Amino acid sequence: MNHRSFVPFAVLVALLGSVNAPRNCVGAEKPNIVLIFVDDQGYYDLGCYGATEVQTPRIDALAEQGVRLTDYYAAAPICSPSRAGLLTGCYPRRVGNHIWVHRADSNTGIHPDELTLAELLKSAGYATACVGKWHLGFHPPFLPLQQGFDHYYGLLHNLDPVEVVYFDDQGGVPLMRGDQVVKRPADPSELTRLYTDETIKFIRDHRDGPFFVYLAHTMLHNPLGVGPEFKGTSQWGDYGDAIQEMDFHVGRIVDELESLDIDDNTLIVYASDNGRGPGRMPDQKIQGRKLSTYEGGIRVPAIAWGPGVGITKSLVSGAVTRAMDWYPTLATFAGVPVPTDRVIDGRDLTPLLTGETTLVPPPGLKMSLNATVPLRRRFEPPGEWASMINRNEYFDAFFYHGSQGALAAVRWRNWKLVLNPSLTLYDLAKDPGETKPVRNGEILRKLRGMAVLFQEEMRRDARSAGVVVPKQANGRTRVTADQLDRLNAKTDVVYAQYDDRQLAMDIYRPSSSWGTLPAVVCIHGGGWYKGNRSSHRAMAQSLALRGYVTATISYRLSGEASFPAAIHDCKAAVRYLRAHAKEYGIDPDHIGAMGLSAGGHLTALLATSAGVQRLEGSGGNPQFSSAIQAAVPMGAQTDLLSERTRTVSASASRGEIWRQFLDGSLDQNESNYQLASPLFHLNDGDPPCWFVTGALDDPSTHADGFRKRMDELGIDTGLTVIAEAPHAFVGKQRWFDTMLNDADRFFQKHLKAKAGQKNGQ
Question: How far apart are CA 438 and CA 418, in angstroms?
Fold first, then answer.
């Protein structure tokens, strides 16, 4: 047996140091974080990694004052998968973003259900900015501002010839700030400077912190752009010149942090998204290029700097690390536990970076806040492998995937097993150039077993990429078969029983989601006298695809039971979901509601009437609360004591529905109207409400009085008025999409984010 195969326990303890209780965070306050992600920089292409053709004193200084990782791997050897791995903490394959790259005509991207690093830090009070290249999908649900970033400036795309062709008839690839075009076409020679200018401005604006900047440079990707003052300054053509320009602008960021006196509370990570090429000198043994799974395609520079936040000084670490590890590691520095419903692949490197250990500690030692995150991964080895592979070994292994997405190799400690075209084992400690296959049957079987276990894990646990099916702007609202395939549905679920009268709901959940999710009850319209749960089916299905458990409900209509029967049923539906939260994977503390027209009124009333006994009813599960935590009333009446209501309810032609629902007009039955009025019940304990209405609908649906009162009470509220839309706007796709995006954004803030805070974020 090779002596490097196993580390005796006593040696392991010595390497790890003392085992401490997990820390909530490394420093006393949340550190600022600047994550610099360079495009296509090869392993040997910095002075501190052996380059002689360029001078990189500022980046080298970060390495000298911090930690330089020598065996660090990008998540993939190509752009989009690599970014997906970094921002989700997952192998790109786990999140469905492992195959090639997203071009401008792609309908896929990072799934809205994924909790990005930006979303995680934002929930803990960080101001977040993405500056630079995105490349993770180009439809609205995939864009930076919908993925946890408060601010975006940069290019959503690449500038290489296979991408710019999509913009020939538009004047070129645009440089964006938020959703506005700043310049078109983007000039490659300006980008490194402009990105740095924008980063420095964001840092200045948020100097009081904490802030997170993801600076994803377009350089050093082809076509190379070099500012005129750096042209010809290196011994390596445009590529070397661009590296030296990069070094200068990294130095500008460090200087700014020092001038603002916040460098002692800032952590900088510098890393490349994939490799570029092989070594150029005899002592630079690594071979392979971008797109390949030779070491040169995927092993890249990575540096962590932050003396003031605990990063150790002048450490060169050969521990096997990977891009996914930054997610739990930076979360620990920020004092943010990764939510328990997240299965990710990254490991917490904090003890390694702070000098407590020389290895990445086993998760069971609980040496840092997010140490145990890997234990959520599936590890169920069958008998063939059970005695050969332990859990810690499996979690420490790195699984290389090629640019087409296939599993290509496995690394564990110094060993690398290449899987195709035949099993070939290398000892990278002795042969980093992968030139001399070695024979070691025990190690080969171990790594082959790891590959098999990983394939099974991904088969069972991989999640879907986000998919948007392009729709006709004026077409009818629809949910496609492809989208429905990504949902689990349970229909005709009886949630309330009144003698022999049963009420049912249909429940939807994204099939790829783990753990508990917030729930949203969808309450149909129809003027309280017609309709059923199918009326809001598309709404429930579409919202579920964004990471919620949704239920669309039927309730008793006014023709069979007048008010308050309908609100009794809505409350019974909420109680039912809370009572069956475990069965459906619901977070019972984070339930919302939305509905249009009559459903909008019932949504607003549901939000404001928790604990009003006359409105609770006898629909079942009385031991559970009917309170909701967020509401999106649409086209809703919220003041049933208004003069408008008085006029409409008395009208012979327009008031029949009101009189049937509320047993008379307002003048005839004011007490019932008062009981049914959301504004009457509104108090400071009620949940946030966001209103949506069509521009052509009656102004009363703007809920001006209701929202004014919410503002006075300090409750979050707001209004979306959909241009050109009538009262019944959910039937047309473009209006439906506007509604859905705003509702999702609101529920993310008040259901998803607050669920994360509950879990310790």
Answer: 12
- Exposure of 112 by Cβ count < 10 A (0-12 exposed, 13-18 middle, 19+ buried)? buried
Q: Which residue has the tokens 């959703």?
A: 179
Which tokens sit at 298?
């995927």
DSSP string, 451-520: HHHHHHHHHHH--PPEE-----TTSBP---HHHHTTEEEEEEEEEEEETTEEEEEEEEEETT--S-EEEE
- Residue 473: pLDDT band with limits 50, 70, 90: low
Q: In this predicted model, what pLDDT tens digit does every residue of 225-281 receive, in sequence order?
A: 999 999 999 999 999 999 999 999 999 999 999 999 999 999 999 999 999 999 999
- The Cα 348–Cα 319 span in angstroms is 13
Which pLDDT tens digit goes with each residue over 601-660?
999 999 999 999 999 999 999 999 999 999 999 999 999 999 999 999 999 878 899 999
Summary mean pLDDT of the chain? 92
Nearest partner of 5 among 435, 409, 442, 418, judged by Cα: 442
Counting beta carbons within 10 angstroms of the beta carbon of residue 683, is it exposed (0 to 12), middle (13 to 18) or buried (19 or more)? exposed
Q: Quote the CA–CA distance of 400 and 390 in Å, as a whole number.
A: 20
Residue 344 identity: I
Q: Which tens digit of pLDDT belongs to each residue from 733-747?
A: 889 999 999 999 999
Instruction: Give residue limits of the domains in the chain.
Output: 32-354, 383-467, 481-639+677-752
Active-site amino acid positions: 79, 135
Per the document, the length of the chain is 761
What's the whole-model pTM score?
0.66
Architecture (CATH level 2) of domain 481-639+677-752 = 3-Layer(aba) Sandwich (3.40)
How would you classify the pairing of strands 180-183 and 175-177? Answer: antiparallel
Residue 12 has pLDDT above 70, yes or no: no
CATH number for region 383-467? 3.30.1120.10
Mean pLDDT of 336-349: 93
Q: Which of 597, 579, 600 is closest to 588 using CA atoms?
A: 579
Among 373, 367, 357, smallest CA distance to 325 is for 373
What's the CATH class of domain 32-354? alpha beta
